[in-house]
Amino acid sequence: MFKEFKEFAMKGSLVDMATGIIIGAAFGTVVKSLVDDVLMPPIGMLMGGVDFSNLFAVIKEGATAAPYASVEAAAEAGAVTINYGVFINNIISFLVVALAIFFVIKAVNKAKREEEQEEAPAEPPATEVLLGEIRDLLKK
Q: DSSP 3-state assignment of 123?
């Protein structure tokens, strides 16, 4: 049973998948930082100093009455909130990841096409094929 598990665990596709998951998690961290620390501050500034991660709606007030200065203040007061600003940040993160993956896959597909074109033997022009067939017929 251990031998079968070892064979399963060491299959190339499983190792490739595990590597992809690990790199994907690290990539997600980088993208989150890109969105939160690089993209959102200037976008928020252009929109009048809005901090998207701090946009929320209070569903139920907590021990102290609203308004709350931040999501954290609302949570400390025990208020129930819908944090739609965090959702906006997550949508932007998703779009950045999707765009980055699109460009990576586009580059890989282009490289594969170029490699296939280099490997494929060049077909002779149609006139040479036709002349070859005529020669074969004349030899008979």
A: coil
| Local structure of residue 58 (DSSP, 8 states) | E
Low-confidence ranges of the chain (pLDDT < 50): none
pTM metric for this prediction? 0.59
CATH of 2-50+83-139, one of 1.10.10, 1.10.1200, 1.25.40, 3.40.1440: 1.10.1200
Q: How open is the CA angle 34-38-43, to the nearest 5 degrees?
A: 120
Residues 6+ apart with CB under 8 A from 134: none
User: Around 89, how many Cα atoms within 13 Å sit in the side-chain half-sphere?
Assistant: 23
H/E element, 103: helix 84-119
Residues ≥6 apart with Cβ < 8 Å to 115: none
